[in-house]
Amino acid sequence: MSHADTQFDNVSVVKQANVYHDGKVTSRVVKFADGSHKTLGIMLPGEYTFGTDAAELMEITAGDLEVQLPGSDQWQRIQGGQSFEVPANASFNLKIHSLVDYCCSYFK
């Protein structure tokens, strides 16, 4: 794994955590010099629904989950090292089977 795959350099981090689903999902915003941002977070086991404003790329660094993407009735298994994309202005469902560590990138 390269340095670029394991850390972000020259960024700012927002101290205040984003807390969802009674604290079972948390994240922190990482801001880049170009004005873009990502979130880094943890999801504890459970079932969750999220909505998007912008399109998202969810990179799963560790853990085991299933995702039901917008417009689908199928569940896809995702594990650490895999990722999935969600379109803008959509809702998606997650079943978290073991603690999930993730990085979410946003696109306009």
TrEMBL record:
Entry EC number(s): 2.4.2.1, 2.4.2.2
Gene Ontology CC: one annotated term: cytosol
SUPFAM superfamilies on file: RmlC-like cupins (SSF51182)
Reactions this protein catalyses: a purine D-ribonucleoside + phosphate = a purine nucleobase + alpha-D-ribose 1-phosphate; thymidine + phosphate = 2-deoxy-alpha-D-ribose 1-phosphate + thymine; inosine + phosphate = alpha-D-ribose 1-phosphate + hypoxanthine; uridine + phosphate = alpha-D-ribose 1-phosphate + uracil
Root EC class: transferase
Transmembrane segments: none
GO MF: guanosine phosphorylase activity; purine-nucleoside phosphorylase activity; thymidine phosphorylase activity; uridine phosphorylase activity
UniProt KW keywords: Glycosyltransferase, Transferase
InterPro entries, alphabetized: Ppnp, RmlC-like_jellyroll, RmlC_Cupin_sf
Gene3D superfamilies on file: Jelly Rolls (2.60.120.10)
Function: Catalyzes the phosphorolysis of diverse nucleosides, yielding D-ribose 1-phosphate and the respective free bases. Can use uridine, adenosine, guanosine, cytidine, thymidine, inosine and xanthosine as substrates. Also catalyzes the reverse reactions.
Record family assignment: Belongs to the nucleoside phosphorylase PpnP family.
Descriptive protein name: Pyrimidine/purine nucleoside phosphorylase
